[in-house]
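Thread: Newbie trying to understand structure tokens

Hi all, I'm a second-year student working on a class project, and my supervisor (Dr. K.) asked me to get a predicted structure for one chain before our next meeting. I've only ever worked with sequences, so writing a 3D structure as a token string is new to me. If someone could post the tokens and maybe explain what I'm looking at, I'd be very grateful. Here's the chain:
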Amino acid sequence: MNPLLKRFALTATSVGVGIAGLAFFLRASRPPEATDTHLHSSQFDHSNCARLLWGKQLPTLTLTDQNGAAINLKAHSGSPHSLVLVRYLGCSCSHCIEQLIALNKRADTLKQLGVRVIAFSEDDPEQNALVMKKYGFNSDVFTLASDPENRMGKRLNMNFKEPNGEETNLHGAIVVRRDTVMFAVMDTKPFMAIDSLVKESQRTTPIKAVATILP
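---
Reply by user tm_fold:
Sure, no problem. This is what the structure looks like when written as tokens:
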């Protein structure tokens, strides 16, 4: 081979390897991209997905209270007073219980405001009844609801599968008035800004006024 052509070929190969290496580095160093099965690759994504609920109506799904009775979310959220929905990960989640206890400490205020709190998880009604009694949750304000197979959690995009097949469950807090989501937040940890949640329960207009049915 001509020495000049040989040098050109070696240079071209080196440049190609360098570009390929750079591309690999950039791909490996950037944040994970969202996919059809992984919509929450970061806390930023959790916030964005929560905002997608703002101004929308709740899906029509049935929860079961601690007494085994069906809960009509439409009836609760259709009143002029707010409904606060809390998605927690069951009584085995100590941080979730801390959140519910903190909310219960505001029970008198919430009752005066006409606010109902429905906290739902996969726990069955019998377990929920025990938790209500153990922690003395005010039944005038609180309902612990059972969400079998995480149906509500999935519809609200708080339950999803990672690319590796593992399942991620998010905590969430949603304020609903007249069947419309006024405020929503979701994250890998419970929302502990209780005073802020009480304040949001008094909201009369949604942050994002686009009243459409969730898919």
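A couple of things are worth pointing out once you decode it. The longest helix spans residues 3-29. The chain has two domains: 1-30, 43-200. Feel free to ask follow-ups in this thread.
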